[in-house]
Write a structure and sequence with these properties.
This protein is mainly α. The protein contains 6 helices and no strands.
């Protein structure tokens, strides 16, 4: 798998995934969230954006967005948010692999670890989505255990997003740092 990631970790593959990621993050999710806010008459967030939540918060959200909003939330979760991990997961895997190769060369280590973390993030996101769908289907009769599972998955997803983003950020800083060092060394030699 690491060889495949290394092979595909090139700008002409990463850039389209980046653009698709932006379409989801800056257009699709806000579009549907704005529809929910219009229905609720106030600014609301989809359950997917909560870092953790309680039964009271879920009931409050689902009540505010009414039946029409719950159907929109269901569509977002069952369609849009089921496609999204297939965009951001490979994007993060390939971006981090690309950056690690730039810092450490073609034999960069840790690519399997990166793959595992990004894959775990995708799996947790899917588990959270299925839990959200279960909550939407059972509303107003929400089970504490399902709410607790959803909240735990939301929190775990946030931790994994921060971990993947941090790895990408530090890899990018490492690439910039190694580039600056090479420039300085080459300048001193010349």
């Amino acid at each position: 798998m690491t060889q495949l990631l290394s092979k595909w970790a090139i700008p002409k593959v990463i850039l389209p995934l980046f653009i698709l990621n932006l379409v989801f993050a800056l257009f699709l999710f806000p579009k549907y969230e704005n529809q929910l806010s219009d229905i609720a008459g106030e600014k609301v967030q989809i359950l997917d954006k909560y870092p953790m939540y309680t039964k009271v918060q879920v009931i409050d959200l689902f009540t505010k967005i009414k039946a029409e909003g719950r159907e929109i939330h269901r569509f977002m979760t069952s369609v849009v948010d089921m496609i999204y991990p297939l965009i951001y997961g490979p994007f993060l895997m390939l971006l981090i692999t690309f950056l690690l190769k730039k810092v450490f060369g073609p034999r960069a280590g840790g690519i399997g670890f990166i793959f595992g973390i990004c894959l775990l993030l995708m799996i947790v996101d899917y588990a959270e989505n299925f839990t959200t769908l279960q909550l939407l289907s059972s509303f107003p009769n929400l089970e504490d255990s399902v709410v607790s599972r959803g909240s735990t998955l939301a929190n775990l997803k946030l931790v994994l997003i921060l971990l993947c983003s941090g790895i990408a950020l530090f890899s990018a800083l490492g690439w910039i740092g190694s580039y600056l060092i090479k420039m300085t060394v080459n300048r001193d030699r010349g």
